Amino acid sequence: MKKTLLGLLAGAAIFAATPANAVIVGNFGINPNSAAGDFSNDPNGPVGGLFFDQYLFTLTGTSFITVTTASNTFASGGINGPNGIQNFTGAIYQVVGAPDILPGGDDILRFGPQAATLCASGLCQQLAGVGTVPGGTYYLAIAGIAGLTAGYGGNLSVAEVTATPIPGAAFLFGSVLAGGAYLQRRRRNKLV
Asked: Which CATH number characterizes residue 122's domain?
């Protein structure tokens, strides 16, 4: 009886720590651009609370990821009001096996979590981030504690990193060297 009670209490503790809404919200596909990477969600469900939303995507090679201004807007009440999200963060995880329903599993944290900051108007909070990661399967994790009527939105886009030089960079570099040598010759000829 005592072991059964301890098992039930341990199970209840684990359930209490699990976000009310830990879900894969969307899939951006392969190498998403800004048109494919729009996201938004109403993470509160019927009761509000802790959430860990995931947006899957796959990269075919090393890529530069940009998350632009994921934001939560609240007309009044602030972060702690019904439209606010407390501890509002964003992060990029690389999937190992299957996506974890909570942070801290097998998935690899590649960058973040980035905490949201209050907007200049004081009526919203926002976060953004950039980073370079190798090819693989990833998810953008948006997390926090949502008020009853809270929501958020933002955009993710990637640009594959290539090893080719920037067109014209060698020409520009060569032109600077040639120009410097020309000026040096003119100065030398004036002195003679």
From this structure: 2.60.120
